Amino acid sequence: MQPFEYVAPETLPDALALLRAHGEEAKVLAGGQSLVPLLNYRLAKPHVVVDVNALPFGDIASDDGRLRLGALVRHHQLEESEVVRRRCPVLADAARCIGNVRVRTLGTVGGSLAHADPAAELPAVMTALDARLTVASARGDRHVDARDFFTGLLTTALAPDELLTAVDVPAVPAHGWAVEELSRRAGDFAVVAVVALLTVDGRGHVDDVRLAFAGVADRPVRARAAEDALRGHEPTSERLALAAAAARAALDPPSDAFVSAAYRGMVAGVLCRRALARAVTRALETR
Ligand SMILES: Cc1cc2nc3c(=O)[nH]c(=O)nc-3n(C[C@H](O)[C@H](O)[C@H](O)COP(=O)(O)OP(=O)(O)OC[C@H]3O[C@@H](n4cnc5c(N)ncnc54)[C@H](O)[C@@H]3O)c2cc1C
Fold first, then answer.
1. Could you tell me if the CB of 134 is within 6 A of ligand 1?
2. pLDDT exceeds cutoff 90 at 103
3. What are the residues whose beta carbons fall under 8 Å from the beta carbon of 263, sequence distance 6 or more?
4. Does CATH number 3.30.390.50 belong to domain 176-286?
5. Domain 5-51 is in which class?
6. How far is the CA of 235 from the centre of ligand 1 (A)?
7. Which of the four pLDDT bands, split at 50, 70 and 90, describes residue 6?
8. CATH classification number, 60-170, choose in 3.30.70.120, 3.30.70.1450, 2.60.120.1440, 3.30.465.10
């Protein structure tokens, strides 16, 4: 690592003052599961590392219809929280897919969203959930919708002096849900992941549906064409296959050192159909 100054502010105003003073030269440290490798490889060379772990953003709160996740909520808290399992179980399923036990013990919701790895699960879940992110700076708070937050590869709408403090998600227990992914080895980032959320009406037809992919572009991708192909229809296996084909057709996934674009597209279609089938089963059970 290139040497840096380490600071661990105990209050939000102190943290924000440090970020304002150092701007691009500062890096926030949360769980360190992405930042520390970047420091080790000298891909990040901050002059100052601002450790925010003493700030009071580690809780999960619920009120009418929403869950508020503090930015320092660890991935394992999402897996283990009773309120998350009851009110927004897709978050628990997604967290379970992340890395390994060590990564899930230390890594945070805010870190995952701010790092914005295009193959990460939580950015895709927040995109499917239409989450709202709260961002603080010395200028005050602002809110950013998940669909506007991820702006490119490892890039977000955060300015250098801003800190992500919380994420609000609608609690959607009535939805059927599924997270499906393929990774090359257990614990690896997904080659492709898909998140499905779905409700059915009294006639058994699809009512609300949200689908989002990770691993298929430089940011999470909402599959609007597939959603449109499902909404208002009976979720027969033919209809689910048609929607998955629509999702696949709308993607233009990249090749990398491990898999080709064609393979990634094929996997996206298969996982989408599986996720929809599982979400429909759960939606019918909870109706
Ligand atoms: C072996 C391994 C496997 C992994 N597998 C997966 C996987 O399968 N899926 C997956 O999604 N992730 C995976 N990860 C990454 C993991 O989820 C990280 O925890 C996450 O990406 C970053 O969270 P963190 O809290 O560790 O953030 P840090 O590493 O501390 O920070 C990451 C970046 O976000 C910034 N940041 C952090 N918190 C804030 C904040 N509150 N406001 C503004 N900026 C902030 C930091 O400055 C830094 O740029 C893996 C990591 C490892 C080491």
1. no
2. yes
3. none
4. yes
5. alpha beta
6. 36
7. very high
8. 3.30.465.10
